[in-house]
Structure formats: structure tokens, C-alpha cells
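Incident log, structure service

09:12 report received: a user says their structure output differs between two submissions of the same chain.
09:20 pulled the input from the user's history:
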Amino acid sequence: MIAEKIYIKTATADEAISMAYAHKDDFCYLAGGTDVLVNKYQGNKESKCLIDITGIAELKQVTITDTHVKIGSLVRLDDLKKHPVLQASFPALIIAAGEVASPMLRKTATIGGNVLCENRCSFYNQSEWWREAVGYCLKCEGDVCIATGGKKACFSKFVSDTAPVLISAGAQLEIADFDGTHIVDLETIYTGDGIKPRNLPETALILNIILPLGHDFLIVFKKLRPRLAVDFTSLTTAVSTDKHGNLRMVIGGVDPKPVLIKGRVEGNREDYIKSALQKTRVVDNDFYSRKYRRDMIRVFLEQSFEELMR
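09:34 re-ran on a clean worker, output below:
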């Protein structure tokens, strides 16, 4: 017997969360759909209930105050460049958003969806028949990580392009759930577990991404991928400084979570690079080899330091 498919379109955040609780055993929020629908087609996502949140107008706004800018989670990536405050204060975010996928997809994909982009692996993000033929991995209910041969941990890689820039600028999330609304630092939602890469409740809904103003951030963004469009990242770095001399290095694409290293502008760059190499758990689950991606971490960070100090 074919299971019933349920589609629910909501108009408010409260309604979406209520519907999520009503179907919490088997549902998925649907926004831009550029990842969710592909994963459903490949059999990596099989939720029978889709809760469409694209009609929630309050999540499509960019709000500016004296101290912060709030970006609604449903703001499309292509629309970020239309906001002069973001262009002036966070140009690296505009660049990072412009590196996601292709021009057509960026007109649909949302910033909230990119922040929550599902971890990827070359042995997992395949068709269902391919995965069955090669053998199921830990991320799809198998008993081994095909990339490493280990049976304890999944190392699917974190691939958001916008999150490293946001974290480098001290971004926070405004999150709503059935028990109310709360604010957390963006980097704290990522677990480092490739199977369950986020520690958010399934029913939680991101309302806004919050960025602080007045810190005079300088941010250098870099991305490694085979082509200049469409491809997910093989390595992403975002390195920032602010007017107080703080240095933040965020590395994505080479670990199940974004790796954050904090320091000072006057600190030892070589020590920072060594720390980055020690903390990133790079495995062979990508188009490029593990060694090449590790080598490129050093290259990207050294280039970023030079650009910032220039």
C-alpha cells in the first residue's frame, strides 16, 4: 500500500510550527526546495509530509536597526545584493551567496536553507540504486563509513557557502519553536556528527539571521570547486578582522561542521594555520583528494591573511 502524501501550505511561523508538531514523526519544511526536492528524488529524504513555508511574509524581510541587521530566513540568495546595508557592511556575504549553485537556483534558494544545507558526501549523494549497489553507508542506515572504512563516525562534509561568512561576522540565529523564541550563536547549531549535523529540534524554524553592525568587519571569502558554477564546495574559508583587532577563521567543506579558530590580528599566523589543519577532519569523500584539500587550507588562509593586511 502506498503511503499517503501530505502537503500543507502555511501563512505564519506559528502555524508552520503547529503543523510540524502535528506531523513531527515524518515531515519536512519546504522553502526554496533546491536541496529538499533533489534529496527526495534520490531517496535520501523520504518525509511523507511537506510543510510549505514560502507564504510566510515575515520571513522575507531585511530589517535594519542602529546595532543589527536582521535577514529573514526566506530571503532569497539572489536578493541579498539588493540591500545597500549588506553591500556596504558585509560585501563578503554577497560574494558568498553569489557562489552558491547557479544563477537560476539562487533566485529560488533561501539564506535559511543554505545555512541548514544538508551535509554531503560523494558516497551518499547518489541515486538510490547506486547506493544500494555500492553498499549503504552510515548516513543511510548502513554499518560502515565507505570513505574511511570506519564503523563509528560519519564524516559527510559541511557545505554551506554563506554560513562561514556569517560565523566570521559573529552571526546569531533567531529560532522559534513550540516553547517560544530564542537567540543562539550560529556556530553552536552544528554538531560535527555527519549523520545528525545540527542540534536544532526538528520542528524549530529559523526566523532571522542577525548580524552586528558597527564592528567594521573586513572579510575574505574563498571557495574551491571543480567548476565556477553549480558545484558544491570542496573547501570554503572566511577570514575576518574587526576594529577591535579580533581575527576569526572559519573553514567549511572539509569537516562535518564549520571549524572556527579565533585569534588576534597581531597573533602568529603559522600557529593559526597549524590549528586549522589539526582541527579539520578531512577524508576522501570529495572530487578532490584529501591531501590536496588539506594543502589548499594553508593556501587559502595565507592568501586571506595577505589580503586582509593589505
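09:41 both user submissions now match this output. Likely a transient worker issue. Closing.
09:42 reviewer note: The CA atoms of residues 62 and 244 lie 26 Å apart. Residues 1-51 form one domain.
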